[in-house]
Design brief:
Helix 2 (about 35-50) crosses helix 4 (about 100-110). An eight-stranded mixed β-sheet has the order 2-1-7-6-5-4-8-3. The chain is globular and about 45 Å long. The protein is about 30% helix and about 20% strand. The protein has about 230 residues and is of the alpha+beta class. The chain has five helices and eight strands; from the N terminus they run ααββαααββββββ.
Length: about 230
């Protein structure tokens, strides 16, 4: 008899344990504020990490100034843990071997009110890119040479020697990195990404005369994901 009394409690415990690893439920925002939310949240998290900025000198060497908070510092680790929770994982910034750039993008999109079917919370960039491209909703893929990125778009590059034949066919499990474009101006683009030099960093990148991503020394860009939110 005591066993039967324990069963409901045991069931509750198992359900709670299962839910602990699941991404939190998200609220879908009105269409008119999503792009503004994405930009605001990207800037907010960049400032929370101390405003680290990465530029290229005329001789192409990298300059980091100012240097911000890093992932394995106490404040940085807590922020990284927040991003990991958004994809149902309990890691922190102290887990330095776990790339968290996709978790950062997933947190921003969820917090901005992007529906999960358009941009699901995943620990890999390939996961949410494949869904966004397949959905054919508020995100449109372009090759970098054919489209000038705007604030709110994502710019995506391959990593670790990954080879991708088509910009609109992202292989499952592809090794990638994406940044959120936050500002464009003649010849230059600012983008914010997570896990960039151990922080949420703002990177300054060159644009060609047509406003498109020129040859950049730091990343092999293969995709610009256009944000169609107003």
């Amino acid at each position: 008899m005591h066993v039967f009394r324990l069963l409901p409690c045991l069931l509750c415990t198992l359900l709670l344990a299962a839910c602990a690893g699941a991404p939190p439920l998200r609220d879908v925002a009105p269409v008119g504020v999503v792009r503004a939310n994405i930009l605001r949240l990207a800037e907010q998290e960049w400032r929370a990490f101390g405003g680290q900025i990465i530029r290229r000198a005329p001789d192409h060497h990298e300059i980091i100034d100012p240097v911000g908070i890093w992932e394995d510092e106490r404040k940085g680790s807590a922020l990284v843990a927040k991003y990991w929770r958004s994809v149902g994982t309990q890691w922190t910034g102290y887990d330095g071997d776990k790339p968290w750039s996709a978790a950062f993008i997933s947190w921003v999109m969820a917090a901005a009110g992007v529906p999960a079917d358009e941009m699901p919370a995943t620990a890999t960039h390939a996961g949410y890119l494949r869904a966004a491209i397949a959905e054919q909703g508020k995100w449109r893929p372009h090759p970098p040479q054919d489209y000038a990125p705007r604030p709110g778009d994502l710019i995506c590059a391959t990593r670790a020697g990954q080879q991708i034949e088509r910009y609109d066919q992202v292989p499952a499990g592809a090794t990638l990195h994406c940044d959120i474009v936050v500002r464009t101006m003649p010849g230059l683009l600012d983008s914010i990404g997570g896990n960039v030099r151990n922080s949420v960093s703002k990177s300054e990148r060159r644009l060609g005369p047509d406003g498109r991503l020129a040859s950049n020394e730091d990343r092999p860009w293969f995709l610009v994901l256009e944000n169609l939110y107003p």
